[in-house]
């Protein structure tokens, strides 16, 4: 019997996975979510993505697609009509793809050292990241979202819109501040208020399993599984549990 | 299409990324003005058109610049949808598969091939060789399984993935003389070896391929510079 429906193989904390969920929710597509233990990947995940073995993987009527940015474009094309994720104009699409790549390659690379550095080295790393964000911020000028009046491809791909407030709590320093990056800061707040984004985030937190003991010297003693608290306190709890470098290293996929 | 599409390609003759764009334009039958850049003395136009990376290729269409080879290829396919064959398939799933393999070539295969040739230490180069074998064999598998016996990744005719891989053909051909390595070894990867011949012989491809002996000379010069600070990076 042919497999029908939409499945997402993911990991609850992965920024790459949630992009896919945002896209599906914006399109109003129902899907089944399968949470993976990345230290013990399911046979299904390995079957659907034998090449990179990473999450996210979208399976649509039995056919698998890997790489989050590719999945997001697929979602836009497979469910034509309704919400548009990609811009309509080819030149605008090229620009969105360009900045998505910039965000993925340059800004991500600029962010990761912040987690591992301390003191002066961390300050320097924060400055580098801010320079990168400032370049990205020029795309925002005069717009509510990167996508214009509504959330689009670039908003979805710029994952730290979702994660940065959390990671800033973990590392104890702010990268996106009102002073340095007012447009980005405003975008974060706007983005996090979008229904599809809020709901996916709430779901992701529900899926969080009881944390295993990752070596993370900065975290306080691990709290028990929390009930679903309000938005801001969610960030704090998550921040305490997050081993960012390892997480992104494991789950990261384009 | 209104009044004359003005197309300008800023490039560098040895760049595989630039070659991809030339291949796509050629396959689509699009005419353009080519501007050769000296990457150690970049033109004002290049710097203005790609201020973020200052790299080639850049395609300027009616004054509007597009950068990054994979992005340019998709742009050409979309902006000139009515002209010549399509590079990407029409079906969304097949498009996603094509994009996946293009990303694989750029993110996994190319860096491995580069490292095997240009790695600074013996160990780095050995690791690069190992990874190259893995990635090339995976690609061979893709051609076998996704290709389903068709002559090209794109099916009966060359498409997006063929062009993405095709950009590397000049260097693939030069590699044997330069490094004593055949990236598409006919024994290990017979499908890819056959594909190289077939793609290289296409009417739209043959005239835009760079001269292999010139690439070999250039490659020797780059190798000699290995210890020194790198030459202005080619491309993207």
Would you kindly provide a brief summary of this structure?
Chain A is an alpha+beta fold and 254 residues long.
Structure in words:
Chain A: It catalyses: RX + glutathione = an S-substituted glutathione + a halide anion + H(+). Chain A: This is glutathione transferase. Chain A: Residues 217-229 have a biased composition (Pro residues). Chain A: It comes from Miscanthus lutarioriparius. The complex is a heterodimer of chains A (254) and B (236). Helices cover 54% and strands 7% of the residues of chain A. By secondary structure, chain A is α+β, with helices and mostly antiparallel strands. Chain A folds into 2 domains: 1-84 and 195-254, Glutaredoxin, CATH 3.40.30; 90-191, Glutathione S-transferase Yfyf (Class Pi), Chain A, domain 2 (Up-down Bundle), CATH 1.20.1050.10. Residues 212-254 of chain A have low confidence and may be disordered. In chain B, α1 (16-28) links the parallel β1 (7-11) and β2 (33-36). Chain B contains 9 helices and 4 strands. Chain B has a 4-stranded mixed sheet, with helices on one face. With 236 residues, chain B is α+β, with helices and mostly antiparallel strands. The chains are: A alpha+beta (254), B alpha+beta (236). The interface between A and B is medium-sized, with 22 and 23 residues.
């Amino acid at each position: 019997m042919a497999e029908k429906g939409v499945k997402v193989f993911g990991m609850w904390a992965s920024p790459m996975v949630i992009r896919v969920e945002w896209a599906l929710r914006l399109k109003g597509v129902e899907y089944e979510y399968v949470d993976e233990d990345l230290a013990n990947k399911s046979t299904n995940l390995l079957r659907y993505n034998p090449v990179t073995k990473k999450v996210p993987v979208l399976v649509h009527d039995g056919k698998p697609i890997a790489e989050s940015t590719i999945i997001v474009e697929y979602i836009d094309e497979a469910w034509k009509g309704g919400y548009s994720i990609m811009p309509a104009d080819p030149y605008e699409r090229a620009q969105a793809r360009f900045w998505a790549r910039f965000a993925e390659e340059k800004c991500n690379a600029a962010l990761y050292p912040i987690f591992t550095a301390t003191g002066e080295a961390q300050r320097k790393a924060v400055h580098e990241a801010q320079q990168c964000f400032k370049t990205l911020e020029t795309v925002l000028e005069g717009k509510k979202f990167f996508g214009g009046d509504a959330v689009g491809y670039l908003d979805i791909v710029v994952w730290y819109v979702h994660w940065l407030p959390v990671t800033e709590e973990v590392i104890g320093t702010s990268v996106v501040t009102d002073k340095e990056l007012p447009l980005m800061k405003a975008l974060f707040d706007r983005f996090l208020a979008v229904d599809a984004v809020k709901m996916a985030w709430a779901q992701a937190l529900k899926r969080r399993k009881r944390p295993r003991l990752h070596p993370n010297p900065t975290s306080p003693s691990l709290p028990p599984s929390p009930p679903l608290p309000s938005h801001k306190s969610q960030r704090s709890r998550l921040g305490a549990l997050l081993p960012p470098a390892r997480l992104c290293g494991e789950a990261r996929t384009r | 299409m209104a009044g004359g599409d003005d197309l300008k390609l800023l490039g560098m003759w040895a760049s595989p990324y630039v070659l991809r764009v030339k291949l796509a334009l050629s396959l689509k039958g699009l005419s353009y003005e080519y501007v050769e850049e000296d990457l150690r003395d970049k033109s004002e136009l290049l710097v203005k058109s790609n201020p973020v990376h200052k790299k080639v290729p850049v395609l300027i269409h009616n004054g509007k610049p597009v950068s990054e080879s994979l992005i340019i290829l998709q742009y050409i396919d979309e902006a000139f949808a009515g002209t010549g064959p399509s590079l990407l398939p029409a079906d969304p799933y097949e498009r996603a598969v094509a994009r996946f393999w293009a990303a694989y070539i750029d993110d996994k295969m190319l860096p491995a091939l580069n490292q095997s040739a240009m790695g600074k230490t013996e160990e780095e180069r050995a690791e690069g060789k190992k990874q190259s074998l893995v990635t090339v064999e995976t690609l061979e598998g893709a051609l076998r399984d996704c290709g389903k016996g068709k002559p090209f990744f794109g099916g009966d005719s060359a498409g997006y993935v063929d062009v993405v891989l095709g950009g590397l053909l000049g260097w693939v051909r030069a590699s044997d003389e330069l490094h004593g390595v055949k990236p598409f070894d006919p024994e290990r990867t017979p499908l890819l070896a056959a594909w190289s011949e077939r793609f290289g012989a296409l009417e739209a491809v043959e005239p835009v391929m760079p001269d292999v002996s010139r690439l070999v000379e250039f490659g020797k010069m780059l190798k000699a510079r290995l210890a020194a600070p790198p030459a202005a990076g080619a491309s993207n």
